[in-house]
Specification:
This protein is α/β, with parallel strands linked by helices. The protein has two domains: 114 residues, HUPs (Rossmann fold); 115 residues, Rossmann fold, CATH 3.40.50. It contains seven helices and twelve strands. The strands form five sheets. The protein has a three-stranded parallel sheet. A three-stranded antiparallel sheet has the order 4-5-8. A two-stranded antiparallel sheet has the order 6-7. Helix 3 packs across helix 4 and helix 4 crosses helix 5.
Length: 261
Protein backbone atom coordinates (compact mmCIF):
# COMPACT_ATOMS: atom_id res chain seq x y z
CA UNK A 1 0.00 0.00 0.00
CA UNK A 2 1.19 3.52 -0.80
CA UNK A 3 1.61 5.62 2.35
CA UNK A 4 2.45 9.33 2.39
CA UNK A 5 2.79 11.81 5.20
CA UNK A 6 2.53 15.55 5.75
CA UNK A 7 4.66 16.59 8.72
CA UNK A 8 4.38 20.22 9.86
CA UNK A 9 5.87 21.61 13.06
CA UNK A 10 3.22 23.16 15.36
CA UNK A 11 5.30 26.28 16.02
CA UNK A 12 3.12 28.71 14.06
CA UNK A 13 0.26 28.88 11.58
CA UNK A 14 0.61 27.36 8.13
CA UNK A 15 1.33 29.47 5.05
CA UNK A 16 0.68 28.88 1.36
CA UNK A 17 3.85 26.84 0.95
CA UNK A 18 2.56 24.33 3.49
CA UNK A 19 -0.78 24.20 1.69
CA UNK A 20 0.92 23.48 -1.62
CA UNK A 21 2.89 20.61 -0.06
CA UNK A 22 -0.17 19.17 1.67
CA UNK A 23 -2.14 19.33 -1.56
CA UNK A 24 0.65 17.63 -3.51
CA UNK A 25 0.62 14.83 -0.93
CA UNK A 26 -3.17 14.53 -1.12
CA UNK A 27 -3.15 14.47 -4.93
CA UNK A 28 -0.58 11.67 -5.06
CA UNK A 29 -2.37 9.67 -2.37
CA UNK A 30 -5.58 9.88 -4.40
CA UNK A 31 -3.79 9.02 -7.65
CA UNK A 32 -2.12 5.93 -6.16
CA UNK A 33 -5.11 4.94 -4.03
CA UNK A 34 -2.91 5.40 -0.99
CA UNK A 35 -3.16 6.72 2.54
CA UNK A 36 -2.08 10.16 3.75
CA UNK A 37 -0.85 10.47 7.33
CA UNK A 38 -0.44 13.59 9.45
CA UNK A 39 2.59 13.89 11.72
CA UNK A 40 3.36 16.70 14.13
CA UNK A 41 7.12 17.33 14.36
CA UNK A 42 6.96 18.83 17.83
CA UNK A 43 10.36 18.01 19.33
CA UNK A 44 11.10 21.64 20.24
CA UNK A 45 9.17 22.27 23.49
CA UNK A 46 10.12 25.95 23.56
CA UNK A 47 8.24 26.73 20.32
CA UNK A 48 5.59 24.04 19.72
CA UNK A 49 2.18 24.74 21.26
CA UNK A 50 -1.24 23.04 21.36
CA UNK A 51 -2.94 26.09 19.88
CA UNK A 52 -0.73 25.89 16.78
CA UNK A 53 -1.57 22.21 16.38
CA UNK A 54 -5.26 23.09 16.54
CA UNK A 55 -4.67 25.85 14.00
CA UNK A 56 -2.95 23.43 11.61
CA UNK A 57 -5.91 21.07 11.76
CA UNK A 58 -8.23 24.00 11.05
CA UNK A 59 -6.12 25.22 8.13
CA UNK A 60 -5.90 21.78 6.53
CA UNK A 61 -9.64 21.20 6.86
CA UNK A 62 -10.24 24.57 5.16
CA UNK A 63 -7.83 23.60 2.38
CA UNK A 64 -9.79 20.38 1.86
CA UNK A 65 -6.94 18.03 2.80
CA UNK A 66 -8.07 14.89 4.63
CA UNK A 67 -5.83 12.59 6.67
CA UNK A 68 -5.95 9.24 8.39
CA UNK A 69 -7.01 9.54 12.06
CA UNK A 70 -4.67 9.67 15.05
CA UNK A 71 -1.73 11.80 13.92
CA UNK A 72 1.71 10.90 15.26
CA UNK A 73 3.35 13.38 17.62
CA UNK A 74 7.11 13.13 17.88
CA UNK A 75 7.03 14.36 21.49
CA UNK A 76 5.25 11.11 22.42
CA UNK A 77 7.86 8.78 20.88
CA UNK A 78 11.14 9.57 22.60
CA UNK A 79 11.76 5.85 23.16
CA UNK A 80 11.77 5.20 19.39
CA UNK A 81 14.45 7.80 18.78
CA UNK A 82 16.46 6.68 21.81
CA UNK A 83 16.51 3.11 20.47
CA UNK A 84 17.84 4.32 17.12
CA UNK A 85 20.48 6.46 18.84
CA UNK A 86 21.59 3.51 20.99
CA UNK A 87 21.93 1.39 17.85
CA UNK A 88 24.16 4.04 16.26
CA UNK A 89 26.18 4.47 19.45
CA UNK A 90 26.68 0.71 19.71
CA UNK A 91 28.31 0.72 16.28
CA UNK A 92 30.56 3.65 17.13
CA UNK A 93 28.83 5.93 14.62
CA UNK A 94 28.13 8.86 16.95
CA UNK A 95 30.36 10.96 19.17
CA UNK A 96 29.89 13.79 21.68
CA UNK A 97 30.67 17.30 20.55
CA UNK A 98 31.42 20.22 22.87
CA UNK A 99 32.51 22.62 20.11
CA UNK A 100 31.21 26.16 20.16
CA UNK A 101 29.64 27.24 16.87
CA UNK A 102 32.13 30.11 16.68
CA UNK A 103 35.01 27.61 16.68
CA UNK A 104 33.88 25.65 13.64
CA UNK A 105 35.17 27.91 10.89
CA UNK A 106 33.56 29.62 7.90
CA UNK A 107 32.25 26.57 5.98
CA UNK A 108 28.47 26.11 6.05
CA UNK A 109 26.18 23.14 5.49
CA UNK A 110 23.12 23.35 3.18
CA UNK A 111 21.05 24.74 6.08
CA UNK A 112 23.59 27.48 6.74
CA UNK A 113 24.95 26.00 9.98
CA UNK A 114 28.72 25.84 10.62
CA UNK A 115 30.22 22.73 9.07
CA UNK A 116 31.84 20.22 11.40
CA UNK A 117 34.32 17.65 10.05
CA UNK A 118 36.02 15.01 12.16
CA UNK A 119 35.80 13.96 15.75
CA UNK A 120 36.21 16.45 18.57
CA UNK A 121 38.95 16.39 21.13
CA UNK A 122 37.89 15.43 24.64
CA UNK A 123 35.50 18.07 25.90
CA UNK A 124 34.01 19.25 29.14
CA UNK A 125 31.33 21.54 30.46
CA UNK A 126 27.74 21.48 29.28
CA UNK A 127 26.10 18.25 28.09
CA UNK A 128 27.25 17.64 24.52
CA UNK A 129 25.51 17.54 21.21
CA UNK A 130 25.91 14.18 19.51
CA UNK A 131 27.14 14.03 15.93
CA UNK A 132 26.90 11.33 13.27
CA UNK A 133 30.35 10.26 12.08
CA UNK A 134 30.04 10.42 8.30
CA UNK A 135 33.65 9.41 7.60
CA UNK A 136 32.47 5.85 6.97
CA UNK A 137 29.31 6.70 5.05
CA UNK A 138 28.80 4.31 2.11
CA UNK A 139 28.05 5.45 -1.42
CA UNK A 140 24.27 5.71 -1.62
CA UNK A 141 21.54 6.80 -4.01
CA UNK A 142 17.84 7.52 -3.94
CA UNK A 143 14.97 7.44 -6.42
CA UNK A 144 13.84 11.01 -7.16
CA UNK A 145 10.59 11.77 -9.00
CA UNK A 146 10.31 15.53 -8.47
CA UNK A 147 6.79 16.47 -9.54
CA UNK A 148 6.64 13.95 -12.37
CA UNK A 149 6.23 10.22 -12.92
CA UNK A 150 9.68 9.36 -14.26
CA UNK A 151 12.35 8.61 -11.64
CA UNK A 152 16.01 9.50 -11.77
CA UNK A 153 18.85 8.16 -9.68
CA UNK A 154 20.44 10.73 -7.36
CA UNK A 155 23.76 10.13 -5.62
CA UNK A 156 23.74 11.12 -1.97
CA UNK A 157 26.29 13.75 -0.92
CA UNK A 158 26.50 13.56 2.87
CA UNK A 159 29.90 15.28 2.76
CA UNK A 160 28.03 18.55 2.18
CA UNK A 161 26.77 18.30 5.76
CA UNK A 162 29.88 17.30 7.64
CA UNK A 163 29.12 15.42 10.86
CA UNK A 164 25.55 16.49 11.53
CA UNK A 165 23.98 16.75 14.97
CA UNK A 166 21.48 13.94 15.57
CA UNK A 167 20.84 14.36 19.31
CA UNK A 168 20.91 17.41 21.56
CA UNK A 169 20.45 18.03 25.24
CA UNK A 170 17.18 19.97 24.93
CA UNK A 171 15.34 17.83 22.36
CA UNK A 172 13.51 14.51 22.25
CA UNK A 173 15.31 14.09 18.92
CA UNK A 174 16.60 16.35 16.16
CA UNK A 175 15.05 16.46 12.72
CA UNK A 176 17.33 14.15 10.73
CA UNK A 177 17.08 11.18 13.10
CA UNK A 178 13.41 11.65 14.00
CA UNK A 179 12.18 11.87 10.41
CA UNK A 180 14.01 8.71 9.35
CA UNK A 181 12.71 6.72 12.33
CA UNK A 182 9.16 8.03 11.86
CA UNK A 183 9.03 7.26 8.14
CA UNK A 184 10.19 3.69 8.80
CA UNK A 185 7.83 3.02 11.71
CA UNK A 186 4.87 4.47 9.83
CA UNK A 187 5.63 2.50 6.68
CA UNK A 188 5.96 5.60 4.51
CA UNK A 189 6.56 4.60 0.89
CA UNK A 190 6.62 8.06 -0.73
CA UNK A 191 7.99 11.29 0.73
CA UNK A 192 6.55 14.42 -0.88
CA UNK A 193 8.21 17.60 0.38
CA UNK A 194 9.76 20.86 -0.81
CA UNK A 195 13.00 21.27 -2.73
CA UNK A 196 14.46 23.06 0.27
CA UNK A 197 14.79 19.59 1.86
CA UNK A 198 16.39 17.95 -1.18
CA UNK A 199 19.90 18.13 0.29
CA UNK A 200 18.71 16.65 3.60
CA UNK A 201 17.91 13.41 1.78
CA UNK A 202 21.64 12.64 1.63
CA UNK A 203 21.79 12.50 5.43
CA UNK A 204 18.54 10.55 5.60
CA UNK A 205 19.86 7.93 3.20
CA UNK A 206 22.93 7.42 5.38
CA UNK A 207 20.81 6.98 8.50
CA UNK A 208 18.47 4.61 6.69
CA UNK A 209 21.42 2.55 5.53
CA UNK A 210 23.23 2.25 8.87
CA UNK A 211 19.97 1.55 10.75
CA UNK A 212 18.88 -1.07 8.24
CA UNK A 213 15.76 0.83 7.15
CA UNK A 214 14.26 0.81 3.67
CA UNK A 215 14.29 4.03 1.65
CA UNK A 216 11.03 5.55 0.42
CA UNK A 217 10.62 7.12 -2.99
CA UNK A 218 11.31 10.86 -2.88
CA UNK A 219 9.37 13.61 -4.64
CA UNK A 220 10.75 17.09 -3.96
CA UNK A 221 8.37 19.71 -5.28
CA UNK A 222 8.67 23.37 -6.21
CA UNK A 223 8.49 26.10 -3.56
CA UNK A 224 5.95 28.89 -3.29
CA UNK A 225 7.70 32.27 -3.45
CA UNK A 226 6.82 35.68 -2.05
CA UNK A 227 6.81 38.90 -4.05
CA UNK A 228 10.58 39.28 -3.62
CA UNK A 229 11.25 35.79 -4.96
CA UNK A 230 12.12 34.28 -1.56
CA UNK A 231 10.52 31.07 -0.34
CA UNK A 232 7.71 31.43 2.18
CA UNK A 233 8.64 30.77 5.79
CA UNK A 234 7.31 31.12 9.31
CA UNK A 235 10.49 32.86 10.42
CA UNK A 236 9.99 35.39 7.63
CA UNK A 237 6.42 36.03 8.82
CA UNK A 238 4.90 34.98 5.50
CA UNK A 239 1.18 35.51 5.17
CA UNK A 240 -0.69 32.67 6.86
CA UNK A 241 -3.58 30.62 5.55
CA UNK A 242 -5.65 32.19 8.32
CA UNK A 243 -4.89 35.63 6.86
CA UNK A 244 -5.73 34.44 3.33
CA UNK A 245 -9.02 33.13 4.60
CA UNK A 246 -9.76 36.46 6.27
CA UNK A 247 -9.13 38.17 2.90
CA UNK A 248 -11.73 35.93 1.30
CA UNK A 249 -9.26 33.98 -0.83
CA UNK A 250 -9.36 30.24 -1.34
CA UNK A 251 -6.17 28.17 -1.47
CA UNK A 252 -6.74 27.61 -5.19
CA UNK A 253 -7.10 31.35 -5.82
CA UNK A 254 -3.99 32.16 -3.78
CA UNK A 255 -1.91 29.52 -5.56
CA UNK A 256 -3.06 30.78 -8.96
CA UNK A 257 -1.60 34.17 -8.06
CA UNK A 258 1.61 32.84 -6.50
CA UNK A 259 5.00 32.19 -8.07
CA UNK A 260 6.56 28.73 -7.91
CA UNK A 261 10.20 27.81 -8.31
Amino acid sequence: MTILRFAPSPNGRLHLGHAYSALRNAELAAKLNGQLLLRFEDTDPSRCRPEYEAGILEDLAWAGVAFAPNPRRQSEHAADYAAAFIALEGRGLVYPCFCARSALGPERDPDGAPLHRGRCKAGQGDPPRWRLDLSRAPRLHWREYGEGDEPRDVEAQPELWGDVVIAARDRVAVYHLAVVVDDALQGVTDVVRGRDLFASTSVHRVLQSVLGLSAPRYRHHRLVLDSSGAKLSKSGHSETLLALRARGLSVAQALSLASLS
